[in-house]
Amino acid sequence: MNQELFGVAPPKKLFVKLAVPSLVSMLFSSIYMMADGMFVGKIIGSKALAAINLVFPIIMIVFAVGDMIAVGASVKMGIKLGEKEEKEASNIFSVALLLTTIINIIFMILSLFFAKDIIYILIKDSELAYLSYKFAYPFILGLPIIAPFFALDNYLRICGKANMSMWVNIAVSVLNIILDAILMGYFKLGIEYAAIASALSMAFGAMIFLYPFIMKKVVLRFTKPKINMKEITQILYNGSSDFLGNISGSIISIITNAVLLHYGGPVAVAAYSIIMYIDSLLSPLLFGMVGSIEPVISYNYGAKNYERITEFFKITCVVSLAISAITTIIMFVFPDFLVGLFSSKSDIEIIQMSKIALLLSAPSYLFSWFSMTVGCFLTGFKKATESMIIMLAESVVLPLVLIIILTKLMVVYGIFLIPTIGGIVSTIIGLVLWKKCVKEEFQIAD
Question: Are 209 and 154 spatial neighbours (Cβ–Cβ below 8 Å)?
Fold first, then answer.
């Protein structure tokens, strides 16, 4: 199945087969994330919206560990399947899922004891800290189930089940929106119920994802895990770029929120959270599309089909640029509509700041897609170091330098210009590294 699908099928046809379901599923996931923001912003208020934006980077740091294992294991599994070593791929699958579950149980226990203190230390505003902890608590309790949901989604796509992944993600998204509407829209319950709706929806999705693996309907099977520390180290290394990207992005978000809270107060943080919710529509689309191709990249790398990899890269670039360009145009043409989705008409100050922030950050999408694409492709054929360089430049070095420079020049509004400037520089870095790796690794014309 994988040989016929990943190694032989025409690239454009295979891209559509894999990327379209991923795009649709990520679109629905993005819609439910935006729905969370809309319900919270319009029903509970802008302070609650700011609280979610303050605590969510902390939650994502915990999720990043599970994502590192999932991405790293996916690369190893894809390569092993390309080398026709299905039993070894199944063992990696079993070890990775066991490791993900154990680590998140440990995180849950530690978080129950220390999360509240950490949140109150990081968030100086006591009301925002209180709301943030209320939102985080359901995610803490759900960690052992939520983390496998994301991992199993990755593993299912490796097995060529992109359509099933799409439908499960749609079901999870619809369920989340329904629960939001009932709990917050109808019963007018608090901020923690937005998190409860998300946690319950993802737990439902995880149970469905388990079915084909338990019933042996896919190429990857549950086996008695044979733990090999060298293999685990390789998994962690392969996923290290994504991990550092996620964790550094979260740390930068924490720093950004602290700067905004200092210079602009809760209004600036609320405006930033609106921009992040709007961003949650595009970035997951691109990441999901590129991620859906990653198993093909790993498979063809293992099978030494290097020309297919470059063909997929060209197709992915064209589609990513088209999506990003359309999104940028929409942001420039309809800023009032987009900002109004997450704010009430009485929040005049937040609306004005959010519109300016949106226009300053919108051009970043014309550039950021390229570094994301290059990073995922390099990870797919075990170029984790080069992928990490792109990630560190885009997610850590450039934001930190620009925060220092732009806040002195433009104060709060300088923060909103960082994605655009950072996107331009990271695109240049990504282009240089891609050309270098293609010539060295594939020994074919780029």
Answer: no
